[in-house]
Specification:
9 helices, globular
Length: 179
């Protein structure tokens, strides 16, 4: 006798949230698919050149190493680009930055859930954030803000459940240090 295989049902709300998430990922991936450096004297150029100087995966020139050593910008973002191997081409750097931005959106959703919002409200918050013009701007160029958002939202999400935890002071000090 033929039996119908078990197919798990997916609630409509989750299916819509997954479709919206895929649309956001596709839109930001298309936005970040760029080989253009928007400016040669601002943050983007400095971060990219610093990442090239610090890359463990690709050989750097003495000029790149000297620039990286003298950089006055915060070091974490170019270090992340360098360690991800995204310092060699602008396309890789842009896609890595968009990946950090999308990771920040996931962390924002995690924070919303930990703060007590339901799935629909969380989807609304993340979708509203994803549609903001300034957020789209961050997806166009090499800026450190997507990494900051990712770390900040992850720290806030972790901190949400620490009200009555016995190691609260130590954990809060660690979270503040991350920020």
């Amino acid at each position: 006798a033929w039996r119908t295989p078990y197919v798990p049902s997916i609630p409509r709300g989750r299916l819509w949230a997954a479709c919206l998430a895929l649309a956001v990922v596709a839109a930001y991936a298309a936005l970040g698919f760029s080989t253009v450096l928007a400016d040669f004297g601002g943050d983007a150029a400095a971060y990219w050149l610093t990442a090239q100087g610090w890359s463990p995966w690709f050989a750097s020139t003495p000029l790149q190493r000297e620039f990286a050593a003298a950089s006055t910008y915060p070091p974490l973002y170019p270090l992340v680009l360098a360690w991800l191997g995204a310092s060699q081409t602008l396309l890789a750097a842009h896609l890595a930055t968009v990946g950090l931005l999308l990771g920040g959106m996931v962390a924002l959703g995690w924070f919303c859930r930990r703060a007590g919002l339901d799935g629909l409200a969380t989807t609304g918050v993340v979708l509203t954030y994803a549609c903001c013009a300034t957020v789209r701007y961050e997806g166009l160029d090499l800026h450190s803000e997507p990494l900051y958002l990712l770390l900040s939202m992850a720290a806030l999400a972790v901190g949400c459940g620490l009200e009555d935890h016995p190691t609260r002071p130590a954990r809060l000090a660690l979270l503040l240090g991350l920020l």
